[in-house]
Amino acid sequence: MSIALFFVLAIVAAAVIVQPLLPGSRATSYPLPSGRGQSRSARPSSRVTESQGPACAGCGAPVKLDDRFCVRCGATLGEAQETVCAACGTMMSADDQFCRKCGTRVTTTEAQQ
Amino acid sequence: MILADVGYGVLLLTLAAAVWAAAAALMGTWRRRPELIVSARNALLVTACLSTVSAALLLILLFSHSFQVQYVYEHVSSYLKPAYVLAAFWAGLEGSQLLWLWMLAVFTGILVLRRPTWDRDLRPYAIVFLALTQAFFALLLVVVSNPFHLLPEIPTEGISLNPLLQNFWMIVHPPIVFASYALWTIPAAYALSALVAGRLDATWLRGTRAWTVAAWATLGVGILVGGWWAYLELGWGGYWAWDPVENSSLIPFLVGTALVHSVIIQERRDMFRAWNAVLAVLTFLLTVFATFVTRSGLIQSVHAFAESPIGYYYLGYMLVVLAVAVGLLLARTRELKGAGQLGDLLSREFIFLIVNLLLLGLAGAVMLGTLWPTVTESVRGVAASLTKESYNRFAGPLGLLLLSLLGICPLVEWRQTSMRRLARGLWVQALAAAITALLLVLFGDWPLTAVLAFAIAAFVAGTVVLQLGQGIVTRMRTAHENPFAATARAISRNRRRYGAQIIHLAVVLIVMGIVGSQARQVEVTVPLSKGETIDVEGYTLAYRGFTYQSLEENGNKLRNEAVLDVYRGERLVATMSPERNRHSNVDGSVTEVALRSTLKEDLYIVLASLESDGLAAFQVIVTPLVLWLWIGGMVLIVGTLVALWPSRSRKMAELQEREVPA
């Protein structure tokens, strides 16, 4: 009984490990790293929404890129812009054109109006 | 072939699969063959399943009292409560080793189940490191600490679990600590991968953030739970003794704390690339060091219950990883230069740098103190260990300095801040601190250092509350939301920031508990006969009765207890019964503390001795504010959950990412 258990485990484990190496497996589509040392730009997101710009990290109000204070809550935004993506909440820096997480395009509030 | 042999066989299979995973991932990257990397990934899923099977087998053997297995014989007995049989799994070296491997394999499995996205360039190298680490643990289990080792004869009864470990918190403490140790492996794996691939921008930090924060919080909670266990079980009224094993888990926590903060500097200002990679690897190495300290017998400690040659394996592994990391750092000096430059002296990045240095300094000092007996013994031939007081002398001031920076830092901007603007942002907190200090001096009899510490805590609490409140109040005012909706929306808008603030609040609560309990603990030891009373710190204790069992064999445990009625003035507030029991598997008596906790203070009674005629010695300890330590721990968990909870928009972003064909 115990021996059977052991052999079943061993066989299943070996099968799972060897399977991708067999001809005809779909493993060849698995993403490989790009070449060493090359910097590869991030894959663009499938959808780019245009309407949302940077938001105050404190209250979520839309802010302009060069604002030093949030117009709504008065939080200090700092020169390096303490902003988050209005779509997903990821931290952004002032010179970001797209959110690195969800790909939302950053537009200033002037552009929206 | 019996079940234990299957267990050992499964460990061998785990070792083989882990070694294959490392080799295949390496080959696959080198030869650019994706199917080899998939095979490596599958091998890691296999190790996750196989280590789960060996853990389950050990559990079955423990619960079925298979005393022929040495580990079972040494840690359980037929009369041990089932809950403690579970604790026996990780009570000894072999079991805790298996627990560590299991946790690491499961976390690695979770990691590799997801298709690579941001970590496409780093994943194969991370797989190599994680697989080699798993192979290392599996090798230890197979070669030096086999939990399935069989005794030549079958004993009729087991030795059973050390009574000190027969405590609820010992069921949860080791899994939490080992979970955190296993979690810390993942940031380290990515740090090394980033070094190998030469991709040292902040991508790997962002990608591993959830793992890092989870590891950090788990370790913090693990340390707190360990302290809670010591407080309940060891009967000296304290929760932290600067014991080498406690220290050795605190050291990675301090370094990890430095990491979670300096990550932010790299994300925002592209500085400290090398520093972050070093901190991630160092924290992991220090978790291994912690186990090395516990298991090698290098340092004598109440915890260091097992001495075995396993320490040298750990040492070897640590040195190899260290050598690889140093080599990679030297090879990558060019990529390690970030774009950012340190700003003004009064800038957030500069304060973060100071916080980092203080944390590292504190970790270094604790490390030195821990190793001091070993150092002095090898130099002078006599081991000299540091007292609790000498640790407190440097940890106290450094801790308070760190705490004060926590109150100032959120108000300082990146690059530079003017003194005037900073001062304008600080007056509310300063006022809170001043009022707290004044009230404590006027109405409390706290020592001056404690008053100072509480004032700083009030200052930090002020900053945190203002930071938390600002966004919420504005939402209420401008969007006309009710307080609950405003809070919920503000938090869900930026979980990371609010999570951090909640964790900072937890730190304030924990500091409150530490300062209160350190500054004004009252301890009285009194002999009482039945019917006598004693007054301690406003409590009247009336010794009402006792149970005394003679030493004739009576199962495995003799239960001796005294019953005390506790009055505040005329009012009966509690009936407490401290115990002093004898267990068949240890010499001497083991005390069980009686505890009454309130937000203001803990009343803690130890039955120091009990004669057959009922004459008893009670050690009564009143410790203020201790409960806040554990409350702080719970707030810390809440803050971490807020910071890590996946938001809907983030999930959508991930879905979008997945829709794109690779």
Topology:
The complex is a heterodimer of chains A (113) and B (662).
Chain A: H1 2-18, E1 54-56, E2 83-85, E3 91-92, H2 109-112
Chain B: H1 3-31, H2 34-63, H3 70-75, H4 82-89, H5 93-113, H6 123-143, H7 168-197, H8 203-207, H9 209-233, H10 244-269, H11 273-296, H12 310-331, H13 348-380, H14 388-408, H15 419-443, H16 448-478, H17 483-493, H18 495-519, E1 522-528, E2 533-536, E3 539-547, E4 557-558, E5 561-568, E6 571-576, E7 579-583, E8 589-592, E9 594-597, E10 601-610, E11 616-624, H19 627-644, H20 648-659
Helix pairs in contact in B: 1-2, 1-6, 2-4, 2-5, 2-6, 4-7, 5-6, 5-7, 6-7, 7-9, 7-11, 9-10, 9-19, 10-11, 10-13, 11-12, 13-14, 14-16, 15-16, 16-17, 16-18, 17-18, 18-19
Count up the helices of chain B: 20
Query: Helix/strand/pairing class of chain A, anyone?
Result: alpha+beta
Mean of residue pLDDT values of chain B: 89
| Global structural class of chain B | alpha+beta
The major sheet of chain A is characterized as: 3 strands, antiparallel
Shape of chain B: globular
**Which strand-content bin applies to the residues of chain A?**
5-15%
- Distance, first to last CA of chain B: 48 Å
Mean pLDDT of chain A: 67
Biggest sheet architecture of chain B: 4 strands, antiparallel
Percentage of residues assigned to helices of chain A: 10-25%
Oligomerization state: heterodimer
Shape of chain A: elongated
The biggest chain-chain interface is: A-B, 59 and 75 residues
Written overview of the protein:
The complex is a heterodimer of chains A (113) and B (662). Chain A is α+β, with helices and mostly antiparallel strands. Chain A has a domain at 45-113. Helices cover 19% and strands 7% of the residues of chain A. Chain A has two helices and three strands. Chain A has helices at 2-18, 109-112, and strands spanning 54-56, 83-85, 91-92. In chain A, strands 1-2-3 form a three-stranded antiparallel beta sheet, with no helix packed on it. The N and C termini of chain A lie far apart (74 Å). Chain B has 662 residues and is α+β, with helices and mostly antiparallel strands. Chain B folds into four domains: 1-163; 167-344, no CATH class; 396-519 and 633-656, no CATH class; 522-627, no CATH class. Chain B has a four-stranded antiparallel beta sheet with strand order 1-11-10-9, covered by helices on one side. In chain B, strands 2-3-5-6 form a four-stranded antiparallel beta sheet, with no helix packed on it. A three-stranded antiparallel beta sheet of chain B has the order 4-7-8, with no helix packed on it. In chain B, helix 7 crosses helix 11 (273-296). The radius of gyration of chain B is 27 Å and the shape is globular. At the A-B interface, helix 1 of A face helix 1, helix 2, helix 10, helix 16 and helix 17 of B.
